[in-house]
Write a structure and sequence with these properties.
heterodimer; A: alpha+beta; 5-stranded antiparallel β-sheet; 11 strands; about 45% helix; about 20% strand; B: alpha+beta; Chemotaxis protein chec; 8-stranded antiparallel β-sheet; 5 helices
Chain lengths: ~325, ~200
Amino acid sequence: MSLADTGGNGLHSVIDRLEIGIAVLDRETRVIHWNRWLAARSGIEPGRAADRPLSDVLPETVGTRLEMAVDQAIRNHLPALLSPALHGTLLPLFQTADERRLNRRMHQLIHVLPVDDPQQSAACIIQINDMTATVSRERVLRQQAEHLRRSTHQDPLTGLANRRLFDETLAGEFAKAQGSGQPLALVIADLDHFSDFNTLYGREKGDATLREIGKACQAALRPYGDLAARYNGDEFAFILPNLTAEAARPFAENLRVRIQTLNIANEASETASKVTASLGLAVFVPSHEADTNTLLSAAEIALYQAKHEGRNRAVSFSLDDGSFRICG
Amino acid sequence: MIHLNELQHDALGEIFNIGVGRAASSLSQIVQDEVLLSAPEVLLVDRNEAAQLLLGTEFRHFSTVSQQFSGAFEANAMLIFPESNALEIVRLMVGPHMSVAELSEFEQEAMCEIGNIILNACMGSLADLLHIRFDSTLPLHRFGTTQSLQLPGDGDNPLVLILQVDLIISQQRIQGHIIFLLSVSSLSALIDCLNNYLRAQGLA
């Protein structure tokens, strides 16, 4: 049965009116009906599609999942769904002539449905929904979500983790270390005389310097697991999981050297003629009674000692015996 | 209680193995990367045992895709992945990292399609080899907790056919289950079909 024979059929004129694409195939995948929506978007008139196998009308379908789904619908009578996320723009369908010229296919959701219709010999329906608008809205929403996620977790000036992410990560790593019995190291770095630096050189230069130091901090981390955060105005903090005191001390010293060797002049400093930092380090294997404040306080005690000893140095504080050690 | 003898059990395993093989090749084509589905282990257990088997895992949240098959016999077929595994599949097949809350209808449709491919392949293979026919609903995707993961049905379908499969995408192993809920009469019908098949093979 061809399209010409069924042109006057009431049901077919209904299908023609639908605002979705409909192709009806017989058991040999020959086109029995090709609705107007589909004709307009594919650029293939119903008369040209009629009685020809799908692979002939749309050669793009050969070897695709659509071809398999059609085969399965006809042979096994099983319905299939082809999602826009996995297939996107499988068929060469375009919303307008302009889009066709630019080769911008519409995003499609395709259903392949078996039918039992011995009279008309229809065996399978391909139903196509235009998902283009939904896909682009989805993209915008996703970008916004990504932007939002970044702004809630990132310090806008340095690009390092912000205080919120630092707190969350510290809590997570602390719980992990409690479970695994592995050590957890924490370093707090405070730039020496940085408020004087800001007064002398101005806020803009101060910001640029913080950005540069942020980069140096990030570069000092191991590839996985470490976190560098902007902790307070001119304080940076580092979470270093599974790092022993022996390994953490050189890390802290290395940080100090990295900051010093940026060679950023600071004529306002009483410590040196350039920007330097004092660092406090604490490492411990947290017991189940301990909390993150214990570790934070220990690192702050170490930092205070580093300042007390004349700044531009890294000092560790041992929670076991209350002793201080110069790192490096 | 109905049970499968060794021949029937092996025949089912072989038929589903062909099915998951086909599904793997369809999935590979979509992601343009090798997707492997392990030969499924076939288990016939009662509902309570099934619930324990599924819920006994450390996972509390599940992603399910289900289709209702009817014809030679009725089966409620369901593909079940722990939620984190489902997210991993979507991430590997669709792209970026996302949480369940962010999972839009796109990813849900993608999960639907993946389930559809695997379930249709299994049932299609049954239909082909046993020379029977099924109709089916379109796939439905759901997230649920262990509490809400009620195995549908009532006292009438006490038995559950479970296929345990490993899905390997980009060298990452993701474990899931395919379960078929069958009534007693449907299970008898399935066993009759299997016996016919085995007789035709000269095995029974």
